[in-house]
Design brief:
Number of domains: 3
Oligomer: single chain
Radius of gyration: 21 Å
Length: about 400
């Protein structure tokens, strides 16, 4: 029996484990593993797919220190088309000297540039090799999803309701000037290439002054400034404190967006993670917050989708799911799946698409009709293959 799936991944990750479990249940196979470390070290990994599978799956390269540093080293060699902006970078010698410090924020733009090169190399390899395998999510789509500014612009052009953008400021001064120019007293600053809420800052200006909320903690000594991401939300007050945080975070290339109020349940704000698979909105996770930032990494817990659905009503709930499906159909039609972050306003009627996450399908213990996201993805992929075989008469 030929292998039907190959997966580019960190083999030790939960993502790889869950996918393998789902694949074993679905068709009693194991995938072909291509570790990211092999790809980044330039080995002959392509020999693993000499006999091409039906599908190629790309998984997150995150949560592996060796892979993270290899991506940074790769990014150090890439000429940034926005070099004049002065985004945070370190050279290869500094990358080699790094030690693994949990929570430390490393140059996000540089990591993205390395990741972008890897994704483009994979697409060039597939096209050059002539293998007929289909990407479950194409590298080009993943690249766009990894850039919040580019992704937001694409959604906006398609008529998708996204929070108004105030640009990509390079400093606290530019951030506050953009907010004042648009007369927006509350805004979110989000690293364009960040994940898991890392580096996000919620900013509020009122008559009493200015304050900001973020998981970022700054450590500064005589030689350098370092940022660390924690699982608690810190409050910064006053111009000096806020300026210190914003100036540091802005160096990572951030998107500034209007702060839209979120609905709450049980006295806690929330947003939704909606996973669209094969064109249909499937799993919905309610992410509760302990402050203005809602993200599952912050351990805010989960709410009940049934409660949100009841509060929204069937019409608004259905429209929200259709909007998520429309994002994938119109902007990412070649991607089999993605996780979308959806904001629900306090009226429980108006919704906004916040982000599209290439790897937003890791939702442990969240089942739909007894199946997790990975099982639904495999079912959709195999159904797609069978439909193509039937259409060609093979």
């Amino acid at each position: 029996m030929t292998q039907q799936f190959a997966i580019f991944c960190n083999p030790e990750s939960r993502r790889a484990e869950f996918f393998c479990t789902a694949l074993g249940r679905q068709i009693r196979q194991k995938p072909i593993f291509i570790p990211w470390q092999w790809v980044l070290e330039g080995g002959s990994w392509f020999e693993k797919v000499a006999f091409p599978p039906d599908f190629l799956r790309i998984e997150s390269p995150g949560r592996n220190w060796s892979v993270e540093t290899l991506l940074l080293a790769r990014g150090a060699l890439v000429q940034d088309e926005e070099a004049e902006k002065g985004w945070n970078r370190i050279d290869q010698q500094c990358v080699a000297a790094l030690r693994n410090e949990p929570g430390r924020v490393l140059p996000m733009r540089q990591g993205f540039l390395g990741w972008r090169e890897v994704l483009r190399d994979l697409e060039r390899w597939r096209q050059g090799s002539g293998i007929p395998s289909r990407w479950m999510s194409p590298p080009g789509d993943i690249e766009r999803m990894y850039d919040k500014a580019a992704c937001g612009e694409m959604l906006g052009r398609a008529g998708i309701k996204v929070p108004p953008s105030l640009g990509i400021p390079r400093s606290c001064y530019e951030t506050l000037e953009a907010m004042r120019a648009e007369r927006i007293p509350r805004a979110f600053l989000k690293p364009c290439h960040g994940s898991s809420g890392s580096g996000v800052v919620a900013i509020e200006i009122n008559r009493a002054g200015i304050q900001a909320f973020s998981t970022i903690e700054i450590v500064e000594d005589s030689s350098k400034l370092r940022m660390y991401n924690s699982r608690r939300i810190n409050r910064y007050q006053g111009a000096a404190e806020v300026r210190r945080v914003l100036d540091a975070v802005c160096k990572e290339r951030c998107l500034l967006q209007a702060w839209i109020p979120k609905a709450g349940i049980s006295g806690r704000p929330f947003d939704l993670r909606v996973v669209v698979i094969g064109g249909r909105a499937r799993h919905v996770m309610v992410r509760l917050g302990r402050g203005p930032i809602t993200n599952s990494q912050l351990l805010g817990g989960r709410g009940e989708p049934a409660e949100v659905r009841r509060r929204m009503g069937e019409n608004a709930w259905g429209e929200m799911l259709q909007q998520a499906e429309r994002v994938m159909a119109e902007c990412f039609p070649e991607s089999l799946y993605a996780g979308l972050d959806v904001l629900v306003e306090p009226n429980f009627r108006t919704t906004w698409i916040l982000e599209v996450n290439a790897f937003g399908d890791l939702l442990p213990r969240l089942l739909l009709e007894g199946k997790d996201t990975y099982q639904w993805e495999l079912e959709a992929a195999l159904a797609q293959k069978n439909h193509q075989v039937s259409a060609t008469g093979a």
